[in-house]
Automatic annotation (TrEMBL):
Positions annotated to bind Ca(2+) 1: 69, 72, 74, 76, 78, 90
PROSITE patterns linked to this entry: PEROXIDASE_1, PEROXIDASE_2, PEROXIDASE_4
Name of protein: Peroxidase 1
The organism of origin for this protein: Zizania palustris (Northern wild rice)
GO biological process: hydrogen peroxide catabolic process; response to oxidative stress
Cleaved signal peptide residues: 1-24
Site residues, Transition state stabilizer: 64
Start and end residues of each Plant heme peroxidase family profile domain: 27-320
Catalytic residues (positions): 68
Disulfide bonds: 37-117, 70-75, 123-316, 202-227
Amino acid sequence: MGFLFGRSYVTLALMVCVLAPCQAKGALSTKFYAKTCPGVATIVRSVMARAVAKEPRMGASMIRLFFHDCFVNGCDASILLDDTPTFTGEKNAGPNVNSVRGYEVIDAIKARVEAACNATVSCADIVALASRDAVNLLGGPTWNVQLGRKDSRTASGSAANANLPGPGASAASLVAAFAAKGLSPREMTALSGAHTVGQARCLFFRDRIYTEQSINATFAAERRQTCPQTGGDGNLAPFDDQTPDAFDNAYFKNLVAQRGLLPSDQELFNGGTQDALVRKYSGNAGMFATDFAKAMVKMGGLLPSSGTPTEVRLNCRKVN
């Protein structure tokens, strides 16, 4: 197994199923659609390539969409369900309402997939493939996506509010939140590296740039230019202002330099147990790429609990 960072690839042959919930629901497989929809990966890649070329930020948004789906009752596309007069889902939960986007890209992919292979490929698998392609199209690693998920017929706004770590989370609470999903502190730190791309709203980092001590003074001054002490809550700033649209290890270099944007980012390098790993990732892009890809596969193995009603949705926004 070898890797090259930048615009090249990290190809990883990884475990078919890495978490107990996956075993309980039946093994996922990279060849799940080999006979029933062999062109699905090509379709997803094609739509994602156009979306990212049009707006690089969409790549980061797709990674976030996958994370926010998997952390709430497993990778089951529950986050894609629209609210109805009788149903309240996850889209408008606190952690999602102003930070998760890209639903229309999933809709576009689903339409193409349905035209090619009707009622065959789940929305959950489309999100998993799209997030892999998002990383790679921004210059990061690639990996073999395990497929065979089903779409939940339910969603839980309360679970989204309870399970998704906030921008002010401490290192200890981050470790605990990921441990609850079977993910190690190392995997948590690697997955946090997704913040090497994307943007955050002023509301979520204002306190850090005005009140925290563990911040580079020049960086804080730069961020204050677009994030005033009052107003401007929706103003955006890149997590990584050095290479904002490149999936690289600059996030960790920024943490070492006290240039983490969110309080929860800088918590990973703040005199705690993750400092050594952050230093390693900051100096070894290949190590980060490999660990990130493995952790994405493992997170993708989080599936709904046994007994959850599932299906292959024909429209990702509503149950059949």
